[in-house]
Amino acid sequence: MRGSRFKAQDAPDLSPSSSGQAYSRQLLRLTLLPLSRFTLMQQIRFLVLSDTHDNAFPDPASLPAVDVVIHCGDLTMIGGLSNYRRALESLAACPAVVKLVIPGNHDVSLDAKWWEENLDSDDEQDEPVRARALFTSDDYTRRGVRLLDEGGHKVTLQDGRAFTVYASQYTPGFGGYAFGYDPDEDRFNGEKRIPEEIDIVMTHGPARLPSLASPEGTSGPAYRLDLGGEHGNSDGIKRHLGCSRLWEAIARVRPKMHCFGHIHEGYGVQRATFYTNTTMVAVTDVDAAEREGLPYISAAVGDGTTLLINASIMTHGEEDNNKPWLVDMAF
Protein backbone atom coordinates (compact mmCIF):
# COMPACT_ATOMS: atom_id res chain seq x y z
CA MET A 1 0.00 0.00 0.00
CA ARG A 2 1.45 3.31 -1.04
CA GLY A 3 1.06 6.35 1.14
CA SER A 4 2.58 9.76 1.10
CA ARG A 5 3.97 12.50 3.32
CA PHE A 6 2.28 15.87 3.00
CA LYS A 7 4.69 18.69 3.84
CA ALA A 8 3.33 22.19 3.39
CA GLN A 9 2.83 25.37 5.33
CA ASP A 10 -0.31 25.21 7.50
CA ALA A 11 -0.87 21.66 6.27
CA PRO A 12 -1.03 18.32 8.06
CA ASP A 13 1.44 15.48 8.14
CA LEU A 14 -0.02 12.67 6.07
CA SER A 15 2.09 9.58 6.35
CA PRO A 16 1.28 6.07 5.18
CA SER A 17 -0.59 3.76 7.51
CA SER A 18 0.38 0.16 7.85
CA SER A 19 -1.90 -2.80 8.43
CA GLY A 20 0.65 -4.09 10.89
CA GLN A 21 1.06 -0.90 12.92
CA ALA A 22 -0.81 -0.64 16.21
CA TYR A 23 -2.93 2.48 16.51
CA SER A 24 -3.82 2.02 20.18
CA ARG A 25 -7.28 0.74 19.46
CA GLN A 26 -7.51 -0.13 23.16
CA LEU A 27 -8.04 3.57 23.80
CA LEU A 28 -11.45 3.25 22.22
CA ARG A 29 -12.74 0.78 24.80
CA LEU A 30 -14.04 3.38 27.20
CA THR A 31 -15.68 0.87 29.51
CA LEU A 32 -12.25 -0.62 30.23
CA LEU A 33 -10.39 2.60 30.89
CA PRO A 34 -9.97 4.25 34.29
CA LEU A 35 -11.45 7.71 34.53
CA SER A 36 -7.99 9.27 34.75
CA ARG A 37 -7.23 8.18 31.17
CA PHE A 38 -10.25 9.81 29.54
CA THR A 39 -8.11 12.84 28.81
CA LEU A 40 -6.25 10.75 26.24
CA MET A 41 -9.27 10.95 23.96
CA GLN A 42 -8.95 14.00 21.73
CA GLN A 43 -11.87 15.34 19.75
CA ILE A 44 -11.69 16.24 16.07
CA ARG A 45 -14.46 18.08 14.24
CA PHE A 46 -15.26 17.06 10.66
CA LEU A 47 -17.36 18.56 7.90
CA VAL A 48 -18.43 15.76 5.55
CA LEU A 49 -19.86 16.28 2.07
CA SER A 50 -19.98 14.64 -1.34
CA ASP A 51 -21.49 14.93 -4.82
CA THR A 52 -21.41 18.69 -5.18
CA HIS A 53 -21.43 18.32 -9.00
CA ASP A 54 -20.23 21.78 -10.08
CA ASN A 55 -23.09 23.90 -8.76
CA ALA A 56 -24.13 22.32 -5.45
CA PHE A 57 -21.07 23.21 -3.37
CA PRO A 58 -22.29 25.18 -0.34
CA ASP A 59 -20.98 28.71 0.09
CA PRO A 60 -17.71 28.26 2.04
CA ALA A 61 -18.38 31.55 3.85
CA SER A 62 -21.53 30.01 5.34
CA LEU A 63 -19.74 26.97 6.77
CA PRO A 64 -18.48 26.71 10.37
CA ALA A 65 -14.81 26.30 11.19
CA VAL A 66 -13.77 22.66 11.57
CA ASP A 67 -10.57 20.69 11.84
CA VAL A 68 -11.03 18.54 8.74
CA VAL A 69 -13.22 18.68 5.64
CA ILE A 70 -13.91 15.36 3.91
CA HIS A 71 -15.21 15.41 0.33
CA CYS A 72 -16.18 11.97 -0.98
CA GLY A 73 -16.08 12.71 -4.69
CA ASP A 74 -18.09 13.88 -7.69
CA LEU A 75 -16.92 17.45 -7.51
CA THR A 76 -18.09 17.86 -11.12
CA MET A 77 -20.67 16.51 -13.54
CA ILE A 78 -18.25 15.46 -16.26
CA GLY A 79 -14.78 16.63 -15.26
CA GLY A 80 -13.07 19.50 -17.06
CA LEU A 81 -10.17 21.61 -15.82
CA SER A 82 -12.23 24.75 -15.35
CA ASN A 83 -14.84 22.81 -13.38
CA TYR A 84 -12.16 21.22 -11.20
CA ARG A 85 -10.67 24.65 -10.55
CA ARG A 86 -14.00 26.09 -9.38
CA ALA A 87 -14.58 23.10 -7.10
CA LEU A 88 -11.07 23.35 -5.69
CA GLU A 89 -11.48 27.05 -5.01
CA SER A 90 -14.61 26.28 -3.00
CA LEU A 91 -12.93 23.42 -1.16
CA ALA A 92 -9.80 25.46 -0.41
CA ALA A 93 -11.94 28.31 0.94
CA CYS A 94 -13.61 26.10 3.55
CA PRO A 95 -12.59 27.17 7.08
CA ALA A 96 -10.40 24.18 7.94
CA VAL A 97 -6.69 23.47 7.86
CA VAL A 98 -7.15 20.03 6.28
CA LYS A 99 -9.36 19.23 3.27
CA LEU A 100 -9.31 15.59 2.18
CA VAL A 101 -10.81 14.76 -1.22
CA ILE A 102 -11.20 11.81 -3.57
CA PRO A 103 -12.65 11.81 -7.09
CA GLY A 104 -15.97 10.23 -7.98
CA ASN A 105 -17.21 8.44 -11.07
CA HIS A 106 -18.23 11.76 -12.66
CA ASP A 107 -14.74 13.24 -12.29
CA VAL A 108 -13.81 11.33 -15.41
CA SER A 109 -10.51 12.90 -16.44
CA LEU A 110 -8.93 12.06 -13.09
CA ASP A 111 -9.16 8.41 -14.18
CA ALA A 112 -6.34 8.16 -16.73
CA LYS A 113 -7.33 4.66 -17.84
CA TRP A 114 -10.95 5.65 -18.41
CA TRP A 115 -9.88 8.79 -20.27
CA GLU A 116 -7.59 6.87 -22.61
CA GLU A 117 -10.33 4.35 -23.42
CA ASN A 118 -13.01 7.00 -23.99
CA LEU A 119 -11.02 9.80 -25.60
CA ASP A 120 -12.93 11.79 -28.21
CA SER A 121 -11.33 13.65 -31.08
CA ASP A 122 -11.85 17.01 -29.38
CA ASP A 123 -10.55 15.87 -25.98
CA GLU A 124 -7.10 16.80 -24.70
CA GLN A 125 -5.06 13.62 -24.37
CA ASP A 126 -3.05 14.95 -21.44
CA GLU A 127 -6.01 16.20 -19.40
CA PRO A 128 -5.61 13.50 -16.69
CA VAL A 129 -2.03 14.67 -16.10
CA ARG A 130 -3.06 18.31 -16.04
CA ALA A 131 -6.04 17.59 -13.78
CA ARG A 132 -3.94 15.77 -11.22
CA ALA A 133 -1.31 18.50 -11.37
CA LEU A 134 -4.03 21.02 -10.59
CA PHE A 135 -5.25 19.10 -7.53
CA THR A 136 -1.71 18.67 -6.23
CA SER A 137 -0.44 22.15 -7.12
CA ASP A 138 1.36 24.25 -4.52
CA ASP A 139 -1.53 26.71 -4.51
CA TYR A 140 -4.06 24.19 -3.24
CA THR A 141 -1.58 22.20 -1.16
CA ARG A 142 -0.69 25.34 0.82
CA ARG A 143 -4.41 25.84 1.44
CA GLY A 144 -4.78 22.37 2.90
CA VAL A 145 -6.26 20.43 -0.02
CA ARG A 146 -5.11 16.83 -0.24
CA LEU A 147 -6.10 14.49 -3.08
CA LEU A 148 -5.97 11.00 -1.59
CA ASP A 149 -5.03 8.00 -3.69
CA GLU A 150 -6.67 4.67 -2.97
CA GLY A 151 -5.08 3.27 0.17
CA GLY A 152 -4.37 4.08 3.80
CA HIS A 153 -3.08 7.37 5.15
CA LYS A 154 -2.31 8.83 8.55
CA VAL A 155 -3.42 12.40 9.14
CA THR A 156 -1.67 14.34 11.90
CA LEU A 157 -2.91 17.81 12.76
CA GLN A 158 -0.52 20.55 13.81
CA ASP A 159 -1.30 20.06 17.51
CA GLY A 160 -0.63 16.32 17.34
CA ARG A 161 -4.19 15.02 17.10
CA ALA A 162 -4.25 12.23 14.55
CA PHE A 163 -6.39 9.62 12.82
CA THR A 164 -6.04 7.05 10.07
CA VAL A 165 -8.15 7.03 6.92
CA TYR A 166 -8.61 4.57 4.07
CA ALA A 167 -9.72 6.19 0.83
CA SER A 168 -11.13 4.70 -2.36
CA GLN A 169 -12.69 6.46 -5.32
CA TYR A 170 -13.82 3.21 -6.97
CA THR A 171 -17.44 2.06 -7.29
CA PRO A 172 -19.14 -0.89 -9.02
CA GLY A 173 -19.21 -0.10 -12.74
CA PHE A 174 -22.40 1.68 -13.78
CA GLY A 175 -23.28 3.71 -16.84
CA GLY A 176 -19.78 3.66 -18.27
CA TYR A 177 -18.39 6.31 -15.93
CA ALA A 178 -14.93 6.48 -14.38
CA PHE A 179 -13.32 4.50 -11.55
CA GLY A 180 -15.57 1.50 -12.09
CA TYR A 181 -14.89 -2.09 -11.14
CA ASP A 182 -16.70 -5.35 -11.84
CA PRO A 183 -19.44 -5.85 -9.22
CA ASP A 184 -18.07 -9.34 -8.58
CA GLU A 185 -14.58 -8.03 -7.84
CA ASP A 186 -13.55 -8.02 -4.19
CA ARG A 187 -11.60 -4.79 -4.14
CA PHE A 188 -11.57 -4.31 -0.38
CA ASN A 189 -10.70 -7.70 1.14
CA GLY A 190 -8.15 -9.17 -1.25
CA GLU A 191 -4.80 -7.84 -2.40
CA LYS A 192 -5.89 -4.23 -1.78
CA ARG A 193 -7.72 -5.07 1.43
CA ILE A 194 -8.63 -2.32 3.84
CA PRO A 195 -6.30 -2.89 6.79
CA GLU A 196 -7.49 -3.26 10.34
CA GLU A 197 -6.96 -0.37 12.75
CA ILE A 198 -8.34 2.21 10.32
CA ASP A 199 -10.36 4.97 11.98
CA ILE A 200 -12.24 6.35 8.97
CA VAL A 201 -13.14 4.82 5.63
CA MET A 202 -14.01 7.37 2.95
CA THR A 203 -15.28 5.95 -0.34
CA HIS A 204 -17.23 7.45 -3.18
CA GLY A 205 -19.91 4.78 -3.09
CA PRO A 206 -21.85 3.16 -0.24
CA ALA A 207 -21.68 -0.37 1.04
CA ARG A 208 -24.55 -2.81 0.66
CA LEU A 209 -25.56 -4.64 3.81
CA PRO A 210 -26.73 -8.27 3.85
CA SER A 211 -30.42 -8.87 3.30
CA LEU A 212 -32.67 -8.65 6.34
CA ALA A 213 -33.87 -12.13 5.36
CA SER A 214 -30.42 -13.61 5.78
CA PRO A 215 -29.80 -15.72 8.93
CA GLU A 216 -26.59 -13.71 9.33
CA GLY A 217 -28.12 -10.45 8.24
CA THR A 218 -29.04 -7.24 10.00
CA SER A 219 -31.47 -6.30 12.70
CA GLY A 220 -33.19 -3.05 13.55
CA PRO A 221 -34.34 -0.35 11.11
CA ALA A 222 -33.69 -1.06 7.47
CA TYR A 223 -30.41 0.18 6.06
CA ARG A 224 -31.30 2.82 3.50
CA LEU A 225 -28.14 4.80 2.73
CA ASP A 226 -27.58 2.98 -0.58
CA LEU A 227 -31.21 3.13 -1.73
CA GLY A 228 -31.64 4.97 -4.99
CA GLY A 229 -32.20 4.81 -8.68
CA GLU A 230 -35.92 5.54 -8.76
CA HIS A 231 -35.33 8.42 -11.16
CA GLY A 232 -33.77 6.02 -13.67
CA ASN A 233 -36.12 3.09 -13.17
CA SER A 234 -39.31 2.74 -15.16
CA ASP A 235 -41.12 1.47 -12.07
CA GLY A 236 -39.83 4.32 -9.88
CA ILE A 237 -38.75 1.89 -7.15
CA LYS A 238 -35.63 2.48 -5.06
CA ARG A 239 -33.13 -0.35 -4.97
CA HIS A 240 -30.01 -1.16 -2.97
CA LEU A 241 -27.08 -0.02 -5.09
CA GLY A 242 -24.15 -0.41 -2.70
CA CYS A 243 -21.24 -2.86 -2.80
CA SER A 244 -21.56 -5.98 -0.65
CA ARG A 245 -17.80 -6.59 -0.74
CA LEU A 246 -17.25 -3.14 0.69
CA TRP A 247 -19.62 -4.00 3.52
CA GLU A 248 -17.62 -7.16 4.25
CA ALA A 249 -14.59 -4.92 4.71
CA ILE A 250 -16.46 -2.45 6.92
CA ALA A 251 -17.73 -5.31 9.09
CA ARG A 252 -14.21 -6.71 9.35
CA VAL A 253 -12.41 -3.43 10.07
CA ARG A 254 -15.22 -1.74 12.05
CA PRO A 255 -13.99 1.82 11.57
CA LYS A 256 -15.33 4.65 13.66
CA MET A 257 -16.89 6.24 10.56
CA HIS A 258 -17.64 5.27 6.97
CA CYS A 259 -18.55 8.27 4.83
CA PHE A 260 -19.54 8.26 1.17
CA GLY A 261 -21.94 9.68 -1.41
CA HIS A 262 -22.73 8.58 -4.99
CA ILE A 263 -26.35 7.61 -4.31
CA HIS A 264 -28.01 10.99 -3.91
CA GLU A 265 -31.34 9.63 -2.68
CA GLY A 266 -29.59 7.79 0.16
CA TYR A 267 -28.52 10.98 1.98
CA GLY A 268 -28.65 10.39 5.71
CA VAL A 269 -26.91 8.90 8.71
CA GLN A 270 -27.23 5.59 10.55
CA ARG A 271 -25.15 3.62 13.02
CA ALA A 272 -24.01 0.01 12.76
CA THR A 273 -23.42 -1.88 15.99
CA PHE A 274 -21.43 -5.07 15.65
CA TYR A 275 -21.54 -8.02 18.02
CA THR A 276 -18.58 -10.04 19.23
CA ASN A 277 -17.96 -13.43 17.59
CA THR A 278 -20.84 -13.08 15.14
CA THR A 279 -21.61 -11.49 11.80
CA MET A 280 -24.83 -9.99 13.18
CA VAL A 281 -25.09 -6.22 13.06
CA ALA A 282 -27.79 -3.88 14.31
CA VAL A 283 -28.53 -0.81 12.20
CA THR A 284 -30.04 2.09 14.11
CA ASP A 285 -31.15 5.54 13.08
CA VAL A 286 -29.23 8.54 14.37
CA ASP A 287 -31.10 11.67 15.37
CA ALA A 288 -28.93 14.55 14.28
CA ALA A 289 -29.13 17.80 16.19
CA GLU A 290 -28.58 21.16 14.53
CA ARG A 291 -25.52 23.28 15.13
CA GLU A 292 -24.47 26.34 13.17
CA GLY A 293 -27.18 25.62 10.64
CA LEU A 294 -25.99 22.09 9.83
CA PRO A 295 -27.03 18.59 10.93
CA TYR A 296 -24.72 17.77 13.82
CA ILE A 297 -23.60 14.46 15.33
CA SER A 298 -21.50 13.95 18.41
CA ALA A 299 -20.35 10.44 17.64
CA ALA A 300 -20.39 7.91 20.45
CA VAL A 301 -16.95 6.50 21.16
CA GLY A 302 -16.43 2.79 21.57
CA ASP A 303 -15.43 -0.36 19.80
CA GLY A 304 -18.08 -2.20 17.87
CA THR A 305 -19.92 0.77 16.35
CA THR A 306 -19.52 2.53 13.02
CA LEU A 307 -21.14 5.80 12.03
CA LEU A 308 -22.44 5.51 8.44
CA ILE A 309 -22.89 8.80 6.56
CA ASN A 310 -24.22 9.38 3.05
CA ALA A 311 -23.15 12.98 2.48
CA SER A 312 -24.50 13.57 -1.05
CA ILE A 313 -25.28 17.26 -1.42
CA MET A 314 -26.96 17.45 -4.83
CA THR A 315 -30.60 16.42 -5.01
CA HIS A 316 -32.92 15.80 -7.94
CA GLY A 317 -35.41 18.11 -9.57
CA GLU A 318 -36.38 21.25 -7.68
CA GLU A 319 -35.55 19.92 -4.23
CA ASP A 320 -33.24 22.02 -2.07
CA ASN A 321 -29.73 20.66 -1.90
CA ASN A 322 -28.76 18.66 1.17
CA LYS A 323 -26.48 20.08 3.84
CA PRO A 324 -23.04 18.83 4.84
CA TRP A 325 -22.70 16.85 8.06
CA LEU A 326 -20.94 18.29 11.08
CA VAL A 327 -19.38 15.49 13.14
CA ASP A 328 -17.45 15.58 16.41
CA MET A 329 -15.46 12.41 16.99
CA ALA A 330 -12.93 11.46 19.65
CA PHE A 331 -9.67 9.65 18.95
UniProtKB/TrEMBL annotation:
Residues 44-265 form the Calcineurin-like phosphoesterase domain. Residues 1-20 are annotated as: Disordered. GO terms for molecular function: hydrolase activity. InterPro entries: Calcineurin-like_PHP, Metallo-depent_PP-like, UPF0046_metallophosphoest. Transmembrane segments: none annotated. SUPFAM superfamilies: Metallo-dependent phosphatases. This is Ser/Thr protein phosphatase family protein. It comes from Beauveria bassiana (strain ARSEF 2860).
